[in-house]
Amino acid sequence: MEALNCPIDAQFSDKISILLSSPPLPQVEEYFEKLVTERECNGLKVKLDGEHGKGVYSEVDFQEDDLILKDRMLVGAQHSSNKVNCMVCSFCFRFIGSIELQIGRKLYLEELGISADGGCGSSGGMECGSSSEKIRLSHDTIQSLMEGRLQLPYSENFPLPPVVSCIGGCKETYYCSESCAQADWDSFHSLLCIGAGSSSPNREALREFVKHADDTNDIFIPAAKVISSTILRYRKLKAARVEQQPGKLIVSDPHDTCIFPLLLEAWKPVSMGFKRRWWDCIALPDDVDSCDEADFRMQIKDLAFESLQLLKEAIYDEECALLFSLDIYGHIIGMFELNNLDLVVASPVEDYFLYIDDLPPSQKKEAEKTTKSFLDALGEDYSVSCEGTAFFPLQSCMNHSCIPNAKAFKREEDRDGQATILALRPISKDEEITISYIDEDLPYEERQLLLADYGFTCKCPRCVEEAP
Question: What confidence score (pLDDT) does residue 278 get?
Fold first, then answer.
């Protein structure tokens, strides 16, 4: 399949160029000032400069361990393989249901032969499982857990929000509340739902798109959410325009001058984030020789084109045809490739078993009469966190330093998918807030090699001092 033959790129090249150009400075400043206000983090300001583009600066003094920012994601998605291990709200990514449901569901899926590679989270010194070999529990026991007929000791100390079903009736997404279900439906899911209530014009094509993403690279899922959310924002803007100007015809031709400004406005949140196309910025894998780099990047471009064609067949909107440009799609995926902060939410199941482990000896012995078999059945996978990909608009403006003054770190109370940034040391007013994109403990040469994938050479004070 030849990726270069995307007809939309040729048909709308002038308007695509406008969509991909940097927004005017006043628009950028206004957008980020509004975000800072909405997130109630008034000690921050996003500034633009010629060297790094955007940067985040402190407008107050922060002390070590102070909360600098809690940033809501613009778009995020749980990794498809992680869904076996963790049942979370598809909008805010909080764990849902109950400790029993989380454990029972995972064991049930494994019983069906559906599994995923899991990792072991921080366990506070506790072993990841009491046995290197998983034991198998009876089907009835697992069903009792899932259906709430079997309650584990002390699980009431770890309450989780109830499970709320998708508005469209699909069995793929669940939520922690009606408000999250509605927010996801209004923002993304009404176009991407495969249930009977979906507004997708082709649910079978949507299934094919999701399968392709699962089989190749699930970064296509958040990219689809970006396009879906832009289409839905455009429709709201158009409906508002019609309401303001009753009787005035707004045609559906994307070439029409009435349509494009609305689409440009709907696209604005995305325009603040992207930098380069995916196939241009993706790091060259270790097993690909540099002489094969051009072929590798063309393969990545072809892969993106395959995904885009499936998505176009599923949710294409004539008035938003520009969004199905390969150039646009490449920039959207590149936004996640370059600006991604991993979506991570700690598992309450880990907290539960740690709690049991810390009980007084007599209570622990009694509780483990019930819990030990479940811990052995889960094995090393008992503590897997919710993991995914997300784009956080304010956090993504933070520049890198190999001696950062801030870090992304979830506190005990941070139980959803928001990005949490804490101060590593005291930060003075007007100082730039920096984080590390890599492991800053690596040697100079390794740090620079990793940072080259982000498209820059680090010139922080440490790198200047260590440069040969």
Answer: 95
